[in-house]
Amino acid sequence: MAVIFKRRKLKLRLTPYEIISTGENCGLVEFLPDSLSIDYIKKKLHQITGKEQDLAYFYKLRFANPAEPHWEKKFKAAINNLADSLAAYSLVSYILQIKDRHNANILVNINDGRLVHIDFGFILSSRLLNFETAPFKITSDIIGLLGGIEGAGFKRFRDQMVEGFQALHQDNEKIVILVQMIGESQKDLPCFKVGVAETIHELKKRLTPLGPRVRLSRVQCQYEVDKIIRDAYKSWSTSIYDKYQYCFQ
């Protein structure tokens, strides 16, 4: 998907990283420099300030220091990077049904403010984690940092999601073929627990909601994006899951 975004010169930002298998149950994972999990950031801020802080506190602390020259420009760039990366990972999470999206699996690049997702152990089937029902991870914390639903940052996030969804919709066959190839050779993977055919069918429904023969217009793509954003924001499961992970780490 990163290739699709890049080829179409979209602003959506993903941060792929290398994984090398060295055995059946082991391998090497590329180190992601200058990146801290949201979970770590919040715990550290609580330790320093003596109370819970939202993500906006960290972004202002890191990117909006009035003592630095051009700090307004730096902060705006960080929010734009947040919006662009949030849009990209939201789409990937929805299309590929990536679950286990708690705050320890979402990092922030401390140099530019973009989000980076890690740990993709639950993918392609919402049935692997039945209680995590949100299409993707978005919280009031993030929305507040983007300026609220009427803010410029949230508008940028929504616009980028529409651009990205339209691109993935138009190139849906490439995504489907890749997953089919994996399914045919690795059908015993947990993500194909419900069957390869059923997994592919559900994937196609997300990529082509009106059917494989219907090419969506931009307005129709916008409607689909607004629907999944609304479902994600309304979901109670994301905040509950974060609290669960926080308590048991």
Automatic annotation (TrEMBL):
A Gene Ontology term for the protein's cellular component: membrane
GO molecular function: 1-phosphatidylinositol 4-kinase activity
Record's keyword terms, sorted: Kinase, Transferase
Cited SMART domains: PI3Kc (SM00146)
InterPro entries: Kinase-like_dom_sf, PI3/4_kinase, PI3/4_kinase_cat_dom, PI3/4_kinase_cat_sf, PI3/4_kinase_CS
Gene3D superfamilies named in the record: Phosphatidylinositol 3-/4-kinase, catalytic domain (1.10.1070.11), Phosphatidylinositol 3-kinase Catalytic Subunit, Chain A, domain 4 (3.30.1010.10)
GO BP: phosphatidylinositol phosphate biosynthetic process; phosphatidylinositol-mediated signaling
Origin superkingdom: Eukaryota
PANTHER family: PHOSPHATIDYLINOSITOL 4-KINASE BETA, PHOSPHATIDYLINOSITOL KINASE
Protein name (Swiss-Prot/TrEMBL): PI3K/PI4K catalytic domain-containing protein
Species this protein is from: Strombidium inclinatum
